[in-house]
Amino acid sequence: PAFAAISFCRLPFPYWGGRGWVDYMGCCNGKEKKGQTAEVSESTSLLEAFSRPEWTSDKEAHSCFECHQAFDVVERRHHCRRCQNIFCGNCSRFQRPVLIFKMTNSVRLCEKCYDEVPSENEFISKHLPLLQEGETFSMGQLVGSRAVFLKISSDLTRLEYRNPGKIGNREAILLHDISSVDTDGMAFRIKTSKGKTLSFVCSTEKEQANWAVAVGEASRRVRAPALKDRVEQDRRKQRDRRRLFELTATKEKRKKERTANRQRISEKYGRRATAAGH
What we know:
Elements lengths: L7 E5 L8 E5 L20 H4 L28 E2 L6 E2 L6 E5 L4 E7 L1 H23 L1 E5 L6 E7 L5 E5 L8 E4 L3 E7 L2 E6 L4 E5 L3 H19 L3 H51 L1
Antiparallel strand pairs: 1-2, 3-4, 5-6, 7-8, 7-13, 8-9, 9-10, 11-12, 12-13
Helix pairs in contact: 2-3
Keywords: Metal-binding, Zinc, Zinc-finger
Pfam families: FYVE (PF01363)
GO molecular function: zinc ion binding
């Protein structure tokens, strides 16, 4: 209720080299900007795909997240700067920049994040700026084709295309609705999950290849689980494994205690029986 009157807010964009802030229209009162469809509120944004996981407190980690090496005075705790989990020195010895969190210098990473960061950095530094800048294409076949200006929306949820020079009457393709992107001649084609196919004719083969890859990567990252969700899922699995390990260790300990008790009782009463026999 306190935010019912707000129709415009600004969300931080995670990459330092892009636009410092992105505008997100109609996020609070359900009203759409002119040319914006009501489906936007139901779609997933790239901002959510690159959301930062929660920082793991040192008190919560008693062993390495990967190799389970116990921490002590010698074996210190180290955070991976991408997934925010805690590792030993050996499991967090990798280093690379993490552009989605504005880390342009090499930072400490775990092996899994080290392998995933290169494609992520390429998308942030190369493909996303291309989609944000936009380009004019010829849409459709030779007969009945029209010029359109294509770019990603400011809230990073959809591709918008309209006649060049016009502000209103925009049409949009939700990123999570894109099922495939392929090339045909000098054009790249976008196929949606609803059976719709849109063809955009490029002026050069390089432009065609860059846009096909950029659109495909944006769609794939929106449809994939967000980084924050993947990390949280890994943490739940880790907690389940730890509980199972502790439960197994407790059972083994109790089993040894019962065996030792039976042995002591047997020895105690065995000696008494031997003494009584004499």
